[in-house]
Design a protein that fits this description.
Elements (H helix, E strand, L loop, with lengths): L37 H8 L10 E4 L6 H9 L4 E4 L4 H14 L4 E3 L9 E6 L9 H11 E12 L5 H13 L6 H19 L12 H8 L4 E7 L13 H4 L7 H12 L4 E8 L18 E4 L3 E6 L2 E6 L14 E5 H4 L11 H7 L5 H13 L3 E4 L2
Parallel strand pairs: 1-2, 1-4, 2-3, 4-5
Antiparallel strand pairs: 5-7, 6-7, 8-12, 9-10, 10-11
């Protein structure tokens, strides 16, 4: 096999990791981070669960295929198409696929792809393409109307803009700075971010920064829908003082991404969720009038343990990239109440599940369901 270019990490070095082989492929509960966990992505961005044998996915730059094998193993009935411009990388990926007997993975030339695809991504970061705008436009052409794209980008912590904004932020957070002055500085930083993002894209990716990507997306039919994982992109999570937390509330995803990078200071890259600009999907909510008809699902990151007569539930995720002081929500409830989740079968609505638990009152049942839903330990889908 020819030598791979330096840009390809070749993580497995030709050897399948322990626990992944032809016997375990499609059966093992392999852990995978949020960006590539298709269950998690469906829970967050698709109002109705797509049956896996109808789910079409494509990786436009799969490299040597490690990520694709992990995704394919967790979604063995979905169709996964792999592309990459480097034939040596594809050769290694084919070896892995053959060793796992992964029948749900196919290899395609990018020009042979026929959409629509529900989920499109590129394992290769956007900055490694000679023409990143062309990649985004190719994604746009292949994407289903309600589908999503995932793109990785390297961060640029040393860029002039980032360095200036970080200096300003340090000034804002100094003890002697008044709350009013802090607010003004933060608002100036936000305005600067949006001003750079609104400039016309000049065809060159000169700096690896957030405004450049925003300008490129403005030339496509794609929009920034969300950031993964959302917890790390809430800058308020990095502080304990309530007055400082209140400075960072913002719904604009570009602002959230830039502020999180400034506050965190050690982000190596970003993962963005894109969708068509005209996508008008409304995710189901327990605040909907007809919420009793919704179907509950477990989070793929839910972990459950026992402490005496109580159950401790939490979200465990090893790729959060957030400060050690920040913890995912946990939940401690009597074991008897937690028996409710035993009835989750991905088919029954909340109302149907409650009937099985009578004489438990609806108020107690609904309160418990809401606690789990607000903590993102469960999700709800329409039938």
């Amino acid at each position: 096999m020819s030598e791979l270019p330096a840009l390809y990490p070749n993580m497995w070095q030709g050897q399948l990791p322990m626990g992944l082989n032809s016997e375990t492929y499609g059966k093992s509960g392999i852990n995978i981070n949020a960006m590539y966990n298709m269950e998690y992505l469906q829970h967050r961005y698709f109002p109705r669960w797509i049956v896996t044998d109808q789910l079409r996915m494509v990786d436009l730059a799969c490299g040597t295929g490690e990520t694709a094998l992990l995704i394919g193993s967790r979604s063995p009935y979905a169709t996964l198409s792999l592309c990459d411009p480097e034939e040596t990388a594809l050769e290694q990926a084919r070896v892995y696929v053959q060793a796992c007997q992964a029948s749900n993975i196919e290899f395609k030339d990018v020009e042979e792809l026929e959409g629509p695809f529900n989920i499109i991504w590129s394992t290769r970061p956007l900055q490694q393409y000679s023409d990143p705008l062309a990649v985004l436009r190719r994604m746009e052409g292949l994407l289903a109307m309600d589908g999503i794209c995932l793109i990785c980008t390297d961060s640029d912590p040393e860029s002039d803009a980032i360095a200036f904004w970080r200096y300003e932020l340090t000034s804002a957070l100094a003890e002697e700075t008044t709350q009013e002055e802090r607010q003004r500085i933060i608002e100036d930083i936000k305005a600067g971010i949006l001003a750079r993002a609104s400039k016309e894209y000049d065809g060159e990716f000169k700096q690896l920064n957030i405004p450049d990507i925003c300008r490129m997306l403005n030339l496509t039919d794609l929009k920034l829908l969300d950031l993964l994982h959302p917890y790390q992109y809430n800058a308020a999570n990095y502080f304990e003082e309530e007055s400082i937390k209140n400075l960072f509330s913002d719904d604009d995803p570009w602002i959230r991404m830039a502020l999180a990078e400034l506050v965190n200071g050690r982000m190596n890259g970003h993962c963005m969720v894109l969708a068509r600009k005209d996508r008008q999907v409304i995710m189901p909510s327990l605040d909907d009038p007809d919420y009793k008809s919704l179907v509950p699902w477990y989070s793929p990151f839910l972990a459950i343990g026992k402490d005496g007569d109580r159950i401790i539930a939490s979200l465990q995720h090893e790729h959060m990239m957030i400060d050690q002081r920040i913890h995912m929500d946990d939940l401690s409830v009597p074991a008897q109440l937690f028996d409710v989740v035993k009835w989750f079968d991905t088919k029954s609505s909340l109302e149907q599940i409650h009937r099985r638990l009578l004489p438990m009152s609806w108020d107690i049942f609904a309160h418990f369901i809401r606690m789990m839903w607000e903590s993102e330990m469960i999700y709800v889908h329409r039938k």
